[in-house]
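Supplementary material to the annual report.
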Amino acid sequence: MQQFFHEVKIKTNGQGLYDFTDKTLSWVNKQKIKNGLLNINILHTSASLIIQENADPDVLDDLKNFFNKIAPMNNNLYKHTTEGKDDMPAHIKSSMTNNHLVLSLKNKKLLLGTWQGLYLFEHRLKEHTRILSHHLIGN
Amino acid sequence: MQQFFHEVKIKTNGQGLYDFTDKTLSWVNKQKIKNGLLNINILHTSASLIIQENADPDVLDDLKNFFNKIAPMNNNLYKHTTEGKDDMPAHIKSSMTNNHLVLSLKNKKLLLGTWQGLYLFEHRLKEHTRILSHHLIGN
Amino acid sequence: MQQFFHEVKIKTNGQGLYDFTDKTLSWVNKQKIKNGLLNINILHTSASLIIQENADPDVLDDLKNFFNKIAPMNNNLYKHTTEGKDDMPAHIKSSMTNNHLVLSLKNKKLLLGTWQGLYLFEHRLKEHTRILSHHLIGN
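Predicted assembly:
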């Protein structure tokens, strides 16, 4: 059994979904693992991870808008307001989506559906650099 | 360390929760793994996975109704409408639940609580065949 | 490859987030694994797991209040009412957050962000003892 670790860094400039599928595949393809598990963790609590449709960009906009409606950026709704009107909604949206993704690697191929892409979901308004820990375990 | 892969196919005929616990257990029990991890991925973005109570069927109905209320099938709310009024809500519901489940196998027993069942959560109105990738890693 | 199993038990007395990071770290640090995966499963369907900010306790209150607003404890909204007004909302909140968490262990260190803590999210009003299965696999 072998294990490999990697960090993918993504610069974000505002709320929305950032496709990092290619960055993950590019790293995974270079590792000497044929079958195994890939664990991806986001090391932040105001951005999150989701697997979503990679065909129509409108889907990504609708997702962003839906979560903004369900957890509005309105300081009157929250106690935690010192980090800006977008911070508490960011924590809520993170808790409703994912901090980690686990994917299976079979015969050097990551098992994803035809229309599935890996997305970082940024919930903050300003620029951030987000770190996604990648961990591959297998043989 | 050994690894085994399998696909569970589930035919759905409309929105709701489909229990696949027995299909998973039946496959896992036949593999030569005593302790390990089971990773289940759904290879679609308009249906999802959840672990929920398997006792009262009303719970499953209430879950379906709750998610229909929170992400209504109303084209006026979304930009992505070309695939039907149920498609964008399906993506939203998928992003709020799970694309994957990870379970632990200990002494040939999948660690689930007494009242926990594995469910496919179908968010589309028409018939679909959904593929659930199963990957067991352990020894 | 080696595997170790453990149960963390947490007594809860009402709705809210209970930090169990130290209990997990304390067990993980004693195991003879340098690199590997940690899988944590909650064996219940009316409480769940989340990774959240561990700095400002107001964040935890806001999360609790948000989920109570989105899934109100009002029997008129649900069919499943026999286990109390807090039970069906508890199932809903569980399905919107996590039944499991997967974390990576690298050089004996659990990969968590600076501000990330591990929380049990109790959704029931009365006292409960919750069991969190811990499973470490690696070498």
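Chain B has a mean pLDDT of 98.
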